[in-house]
């Protein structure tokens, strides 16, 4: 995708894998800056602070964190210790543990002296795989949008929640990839962008849609149901942080409420995610998916620009107030119209049938 007309990816290796360069997403949409990370602990901090965010990108960052850990100390004990800390920093997004375990599986059988070169090669492969996976999701989802346009024969309104665009992956995105592909092919569309409190990832969605010239409007999180009631939403497309074998979906807090509203108003509700986001060992999302609880400070403050254009954080409640901050919720498969993957679009209950070869290796 492009930033100011320049093709850009969210992450890349530098100096032959001795460091990585990321976009610091905590500064967006007010400032666009890149940051170089040369220590695996910096990668952990970047994931924890959400300098990088989005399940696929978290996974790829975790893979590169293992590369940097291997460079520091390629011994078994050091790698295993580092891997435990890396994959534990954000527990809900399964892509992180998937990527770290894939790296360890490839590295531990090798001699320590050979591990760094192998780690760099595998992380580069995984990075490019993520790009191609997002492209395939974009193609499959664009076909869904095109079919909907052919049925309605008018400009489409698509609602999304959180940010599942290219900023959440290496490139192209998950939920927004179909939007970008359809828009490039001339399908007239407009995106309703949930602000997505408390981290306001909707501002990232609006920023990247603006960079690509896609018409969009930011709305308060609670406005989605109203828009659906009045026929102003033709489809909902969201991303995911973990999907169970039967198609239950964990995604950014507030997704479940969008799914309920969509069901009540006969609006199709799609989830776009790579197969690396599917946890084939889990069945019941509500009971089995661990939900990350983040700092109360995220709820009790809001970030923006002051009258001079400076980026500031403002306290919106008394300092002695308590707040709960679950970062994700789970949407049962009965509310999901289809799951858009790199292999096509599946009904939730048909997901496992489309990935039998993957399941055989995962279990």
Largest sheet: 7 strands, mixed
Order of helices and strands: EEEEEHHHHHEHEHEHEEEHEEHHEEEEEH
The number of helical segments is: 12
Shape: globular
**Averaged pLDDT:** 96
The rounded distance between the terminal residues' Cα atoms is: 35 Å
Q: Enumerate the spans where pLDDT stays under 50 for 5 or more consecutive residues.
A: none
Percent of residues in β-strands: 15-25%
Number of E-state strands: 18
Descriptive account of the structure:
This protein is of the alpha/beta class. It is built from twelve helices and 18 strands. 46% of the residues are buried. The mean pLDDT is 96.
Mind sketching the topology for me?
Elements lengths: L1 E2 L2 E2 L3 E4 L4 E5 L10 E4 L2 H10 L5 H18 L3 H12 L6 H14 L4 H41 L3 E5 L16 H8 L4 E6 L7 H11 L3 E4 L4 H6 L5 E4 L3 E3 L4 E4 L2 H10 L4 E4 L5 E2 L5 H4 L8 H4 E5 L5 E5 L12 E4 L6 E4 L2 E3 L9 H7 L1
Helix pairs in contact: 1-2, 2-3, 2-4, 2-5, 3-4, 4-5, 5-6
Q: Tags for this entry?
A:
18 strands, seven-stranded mixed sheet, 363 residues, alpha/beta
Quick summary:
This protein is of the alpha/beta class and 363 residues long. It has helices at residues 40-49, 55-72, 76-87, 94-107, 112-152, 177-184, 202-212, 224-229, 255-264, 285-288, 297-300, 356-362; strands at 2-3, 6-7, 11-14, 19-23, 34-37, 156-160, 189-194, 216-219, 235-238, 242-244, 249-252, 269-272, 278-279, 301-305, 311-315, 328-331, 338-341, 344-346.
């Amino acid at each position: 995708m492009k930033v100011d007309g320049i093709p850009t990816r969210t992450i890349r290796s530098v100096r032959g894998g001795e460091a990585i360069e990321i976009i610091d997403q905590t500064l967006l949409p007010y400032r666009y800056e890149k940051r170089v990370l040369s220590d695996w602990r910096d990668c952990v901090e970047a994931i924890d602070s959400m300098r990088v965010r989005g399940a696929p990108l978290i996974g790829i960052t975790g893979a590169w964190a293992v590369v940097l850990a291997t460079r520091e100390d390629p011994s078994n004990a050091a790698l295993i210790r580092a891997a435990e800390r890396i994959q534990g920093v954000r527990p809900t997004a399964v892509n992180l543990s998937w990527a770290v375990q894939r790296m360890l599986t490839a590295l531990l059988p090798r001699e320590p002296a050979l591990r760094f070169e192998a780690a760099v090669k595998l992380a580069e492969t995984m990075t490019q795989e993520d790009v191609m996976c997002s492209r395939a999701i974009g193609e499959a989802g664009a076909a869904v949008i095109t079919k909907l346009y052919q049925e309605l024969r008018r400009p489409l309104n698509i609602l999304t929640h959180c940010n599942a665009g290219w900023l959440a992956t290496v490139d192209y995105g998950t939920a927004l990839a179909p939007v970008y592909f359809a828009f490039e092919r001339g399908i007239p569309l407009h995106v309703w962008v949930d602000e997505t409190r408390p981290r306001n990832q909707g501002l990232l969605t609006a920023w990247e849609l603006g960079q690509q010239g896609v018409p969009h409007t930011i709305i308060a999180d609670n406005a989605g149901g109203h828009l659906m009631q009045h026929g102003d939403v033709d489809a909902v497309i969201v991303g995911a942080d973990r999907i169970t074998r039967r198609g239950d979906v964990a995604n950014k807090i507030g997704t479940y409420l969008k799914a309920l509203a969509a069901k009540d108003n006969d609006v199709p509700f799609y989830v776009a995610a790579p197969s690396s986001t599917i946890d084939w060992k889990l069945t019941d999302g509500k009971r089995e998916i661990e939900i990350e609880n983040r700092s109360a400070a995220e709820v009790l403050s809001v970030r923006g620009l002051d009258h001079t254009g400076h980026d500031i954080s403002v306290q919106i409640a008394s300092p002695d107030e308590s707040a709960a901050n679950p970062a994700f919720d789970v949407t049962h498969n009965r509310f999901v119209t289809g799951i858009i993957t790199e292999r096509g679009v599946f009904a939730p209950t048909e997901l496992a049938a489309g990935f039998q070869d993957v399941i055989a290796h995962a279990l």
